[in-house]
Give the backbone structure.
Amino acid sequence: MTGMTPRERVAAAFEGRPCDKIPVHHIHSSSQVASVLLGREAYVGGGIQQWREVDAWWQGEDAHAEFVERSFRDAIDLARILENDIIRPSYWRYNRKPTKRIDENTFLFEHGDESEWQVLRYDPPSEQCNIFPYRAQRPVTFEDIEREVEAGEKSAGEYRPSESWFDFEFRAQKVLGDRYAIRIYGMGISLPLADAGNEAWFEALILRPDLIARHLDLQVEHARHNIAFLAARGFKYFFGGGDFASNAGPMYSPRHFHELLAPRLRQITDICDQHGVYHLFASDGNLWPVADDVFGYAGTHGFYEIDRRAGMDLRRLHDRFPHLTTVGNISSHTLHLGTKADVIRETTEAIAEGKRHSHTVIGVSNSIVPGTPIENVMAMLDTIREQR
């Protein structure tokens, strides 16, 4: 086991074999913390990256080309600074040209008729963006959902992924894939429940489950094409899932999850098995009410984020689902608001569980959020380096 490469280390974790060191993957970082770590403004993060891309387009094609190159470079450099064994090559994007700049942090997109115009508004302290319609929209109806599903079904036969959709991942695979595991997306499955005006999706779970089933079936078909395309080009670790829970549990009933989501998750796992790749699922919150469906019946190979404060305990997960590979479980909340001693203790606990159970990749559960003390980040990184 001595001197394993990061790629070999991750493969061993997913296969349940011993590693020379516990593999590491910190899932996401704010630009503010990454900038301190890299010693320059870091082009990574969530909403801030969406705003940066739109701002770059506003400045012109050369500025956008620079944005693309800086984003790729900084994602790779950050992964190395964090000593990740799984590389995340890309962060959030919003690749659209605005038509008007309303103020420093707000852009307008006047595409189509006025009912289709959108506004992007950026909040610097939180590094988040809100993208919303220019005009107030009426609530979504069952008829809207049916039209959306029918349009998706009509175009499903034309769906074909291309390398351009995953350009950063292909670049990382070419440059680093012989040494590192490269994460890829393209097989998430979820319902648009969190958006304002989308209450009809909740109602459809009860009154029109046929529409929900058709919507999810389209996602499975897209995943089928993406997995076949990407697996043939060497990608193995497919990061999917979709947020649907809080600390109190799922946003909809376990029965609906069992009847509608679980069978489609099982299909995605089966597709991954056919191609010899791994299906990873993620959601914040307490997933225990549906854990047997997600990690048992659906057979997902990996679980990332793993919201420790919502009760998703590593040891309990491993004992109940011994073949499940876990990624994360160092709480973003502890890193952000805890003391240095809190961070060291929680990191040490994650490492200890990783040494007990080989199906473990440790890291921050969700994101290193803006305002996280750099002392806490360094305490986590130093503890991992010293103990793993």
